[in-house]
Amino acid sequence: MSVTFETPIYPLPDRMLSIADLLSCFTNPKHFVRGMSRYSDLHLKVGHPAAFRYDGDIRPINEGAPLTADMVEALIYPLLREDHWIRLKNEALTDIDASWEWTEKSISFRLNVFTDRDGIAAVIRALPSQIPTLEEIGFPSEAVWQDICRLQSGLVLLTGNTGSGKSTTIASLANHINEHRLVRIISLEDPIEYVFKSKSALFSQRELGRHIPSFSSGLKSALREDPDIILVGEMRDRDTISLALTAAETGHLVFSTLHTRDTQGAITRIIDMFPTERAKEVATQLSMALSYVICQRLVMNQAGGRSVAMEVLKNTLPVGNLIRLGAVHQISTMLETQTKDGMNTLEAHLKLLVQNGTISVLEAMDSANDPQAMHMLLSKM
After folding, report:
1. Residues 219/262, Cβ–Cβ less than 8 Å
2. How many whole angstroms separate alpha carbon 355 and alpha carbon 344?
């Protein structure tokens, strides 16, 4: 296909746009709040205008024409490797995860290309040009991230919905460790999003489909490569979970992600991945290997842009006992009462964001896991 990054393809009433024109929206300083673009994703779908996710809402380009299949293919072609393009054209049941770096603008993108009933579609997500500092991420307490970055072993899980910033938070933690500790870090990613250069740490990044066939096989290899810290993009299956728990138990610090709506759900999800006869064994292993579960959500700021709200669970001795005994439902009580250990509910962090004027009361109520608890907290302000 004879198109380039700057080939005009997408028609507006007064001009034609290239994929470069579309992606430049992510670098326009007019749309930045606290150093972060209010644009997060570009959506391309046959039969609909190109659309951006802006402050969390999908907004089509004003007066943009409906995309044709040829337009979508031409727009994404410059962003894909040749092997990705061959797979997309020759394999009926496939979707492509890829990354692409716009070096001139110092910004990277994560792509997912797939097909639906109308034809080819794509979602292109912008990654911040600079990895945010841990102060900029917005933890409810600095003591939490400081404790995590000092850990020598254990499992740290970041959970939340797709697009809630889990990968960015892990990247920020990894970057801090990379700058301050003399350790060996190996990451297993799908795809590589943030590019790290070794600083105090020695950092190797491996990509699914390019350097490793699966997360589980990458983990097996990593355990033979003298790592101190292993970053696993996602715990998708039993083998990956088993290996991550074993690595955390045997003196490694492991970071990974899950898609759950709260910290308690992450523990339940892991145990439920295994057959009933193994549930007690896995619960016991998890009770010893787990260090932290952080569930995060992006919430709308009153002044525009979005902030992170977090629920933080630390695996103290009482929490470990509840996991081991299968009383996971009682963990919510620990989150509410063991605040001196650095734990907090999502609602407590939302209240803090309301108090400092970052978000509205309505946004806090809409974002809470427990609206009744949220109402009670806000009524005491």
Report:
1. no
2. 16
pTM of the entire predicted model: 0.87
- pLDDT, tens digit, 9 for 90 and up, residues 24-53: 999 988 888 766 788 999 999 999 999 999
Nearest CA among 237, 240, 294 for reference residue 265: 294
Say how far apart CA 90 and CA 259 lie, in whole Å.
31
Lookup result for tokens 């491996």: 206
Q: Write 148-151 long-range contacts (CB < 8 A, 24+).
A: 148/173, 148/291, 148/292, 149/173, 149/176, 149/177, 149/180, 149/181, 151/253, 151/291
Q: How confident is the model at residue 2 (pLDDT cuts 50, 70, 90)?
A: confident
Q: How confident is the model at residue 340 (pLDDT cuts 50, 70, 90)?
A: confident
Q: Report how far residue 152's alpha carbon sits from residue 6's, in angstroms, rounded to the nearest whole number.
A: 47
Q: Cβ distance 353 to 299 under 8 Å?
A: yes
Count of helices and strands (H, E) across the chain:
15, 17
Kindly indicate whether the domain formed by 134-379 is annotated with CATH number 3.40.50.300. Answer: yes
Q: Determine the 3-state secondary structure of 266 from DSSP.
A: helix
For 189-240, how does the pLDDT look when each residue is reduced to its tens digit (9 = 90+)?
A: 988 888 899 999 999 999 988 899 999 999 999 999 999 999 999 999 999 9
Please name the amino acid found at residue 136: E
Nearest Cα neighbor of 215 from 97, 125, 130 is 97
Give residue 150's Cα distance to chain centre: 22
- Structurally, at CATH architecture level, domain 10-127 sits in 2-Layer Sandwich (3.30)
Bridge partners of 188, per DSSP, are 206, 232
User: Is the preceding peptide bond at 191 cis, omega within 30 degrees of 0?
Assistant: yes
Average pLDDT, the chain: 93
Mean pLDDT of all residues in 70-81: 95
Q: What residue type is assigned to position 306 of the chain?
A: R
3-state secondary structure of 141: coil
Listed by start position, the domains of the chain span: 10-127, 134-379
Contact at 8 Å (CB) between 210 and 190?
Answer: no
